[in-house]
Design brief:
- It contains twelve helices and two strands.
- It is globular and about 65 Å long.
- It starts with a helix and ends in an 8-residue tail after the last helix.
- It is mostly helical.
- The N terminus is likely disordered.
- Strands 1-2 form a two-stranded antiparallel sheet.
Length: 317
C-alpha cells in the first residue's frame, strides 16, 4: 500500500536515517546520544531551577538566560523521539503529518533562539553603554513582551511551511538523510516546482537570522567602543568578561547553522557522514554547551549551582 502511494506521488510516511551502514551498531551509537540528552535536560533544568528559586538572579540578564534554556529544552524535545526511535528500535518511519509537525517546532524554535540571543546582546549593550538606565529600560513587563513578540514572530513565519510542503507531489524517494525532518531536505524530495518554498525560506532566514546576527554584530561594535573607552584595564576586563558567555552562545548557534546551510546547498559531493554529523552539531551542540558555558563563566550562576550541589560548603560568588 505504501509503495503504491509513493508511486502515485502521495506518500504516507517518510523514512528517517541514522548512520547508514552502521545499523548493527545503532544500540552502541545511542549511548552518546542518551548522555547528551540527559546532560541537556539536567543542565538546562538546573539553570532554570536556580534562576527561579534565587531572588538575587531575578534580573534581566538571567531572565533572558532562562528563555535560552527553555528554547534549548524545546529543541531537544523536538528531536528526541525520532532520534532515539531509530537507534533503540530501528523505527525509521515517521507519518507524513508528524514529520511536518516536527519540522515546524525545530525551525520555529531555532528562530526563537536567534531572537533570544539578540535580546541578550541588547541586554549587554544597555548594561555597558547605558548602565544608569538599565533598570528603567529592561523592566520585567518589557522583557515578557519582547519574549512573547519573538515567539509569535517565529511561529507565524514558520507556520506556512508545512502547508507549502503538503501541496507537493513526492514521486521520487521518501528517504530523508537525517533522523529528523528539515524543510530544505523535504523540499528537495518533491517533484513539483519548489521556487515558492525557496524564496519564502530564504526570505524568512534573511528577515530573522540575518537581521538578528547583524544587530548582534552592531551591538558588539558599540560595546567594544565603550569598553575601549574605559580608563582602567581592570574596568575594561570586568566589562568584557560579562559578555564572554553570550559571545560563546552566539558562536555555538550561528557557526553550526551556517555550516549546515552551506553543506545542504553546496556540499553535494561531501561525504554523507559530514551531513549527518553537522546536523547533530547544529541541533545538539548549543543546548549541550550553553549551560556549561554559563555555569563556568558566570560567577553568580556558578556560585548558586555549587550551593545547590554542596549545601554544607560556603562559596563566594
Amino acid at each position: 500500500m505504501q509503495k503504491a502511494n509513493i508511486e502515485r506521488g502521495d506518500p504516507t510516511t517518510f523514512l528517517l536515517t541514522g548512520f547508514p551502514g552502521l545499523e548493527y551498531a545503532h544500540r552502541w551509537i545511542s549511548l552518546p546520544f542518551c548522555f547528551i540528552y540527559v546532560t541537556v535536560f539536567l543542565g538546562n533544568g538546573l539553570i532554570l531551577h536556580v534562576i527561579r528559586t534565587e531572588s538575587s538572579l531575578h534580573a534581566p540578564m538571567y531572565y533572558f538566560l532562562a528563555m535560552l534554556a527553555l528554547t534549548d529544552l524545546g529543541l531537544c524535545l523536538s528531536t528526541l523521539p525520532t532520534v532515539l526511535a531509530i537507534y533503540w528500535f530501528d523505527s525509521r518511519e515517521i507519518p507524513f503529518n508528524a514529520c511536518f509537525v516536527q519540522l515546524f517546532f525545530i525551525h520555529s524554535l531555532s528562530l526563537v533562539e536567534s531572537s533570544v540571543l539578540l535580546s541578550m546582546a541588547f541586554d549587554r549593550f544597555v548594561a555597558i553603554c547605558n548602565p544608569l538606565r538599565y533598570a528603567s529600560i529592561l523592566t520585567t513587563r518589557r522583557i515578557l513582551k519582547v519574549g512573547l513578540a519573538f515567539v509569535s514572530r517565529s511561529f507565524a513565519l514558520i507556520f506556512p511551511l508545512p502547508f507549502l510542503l503538503r501541496r507537493f507531489q513526492y514521486c521520487r524517494t521518501t528517504v530523508l538523510s537525517h533522523s529528523y525532518c528539515l524543510h530544505l531536505e523535504i523540499m528537495k524530495l518533491a517533484c513539483s516546482d519548489i521556487i515558492v518554498n525557496h524564496i519564502y525560506g530564504l526570505t524568512v532566514v534573511a528577515f530573522t537570522v540575518g537581521t538578528d546576527s547583524l544587530l548582534i554584530l552592531i551591538s558588539y561594535v558599540f560595546i567594544l567602543k565603550t569598553v575601549l573607552g574605559i580608563a582602567s584595564p581592570e574596568g575594561r576586563q570586568k566589562a568584557f568578561n560579562t559578555c564572554i558567555s553570550h559571545i560563546c552562545a552566539v558562536l555555538l548557534f550561528y557557526i553550526p547553522m551556517i555550516g549546515l546551510s552551506l553543506i545542504h546547498r553546496f556540499g553535494e559531493r561531501a561525504p554523507h557522514i559530514v551531513h549527518i554529523l553537522m546536523s547533530y552539531v547544529y541541533l545538539l551542540a548549543p543546548p549541550l554547551m550553553n549551560p556549561i558555558v554559563y555555569s563556568i563563566k558566570t560567577k553568580q550562576i556558578r556560585g548558586r549551582i555549587l550551593q545547590r550541589l554542596c549545601p554544607q560548603k560556603t562559596f563566594h560568588s
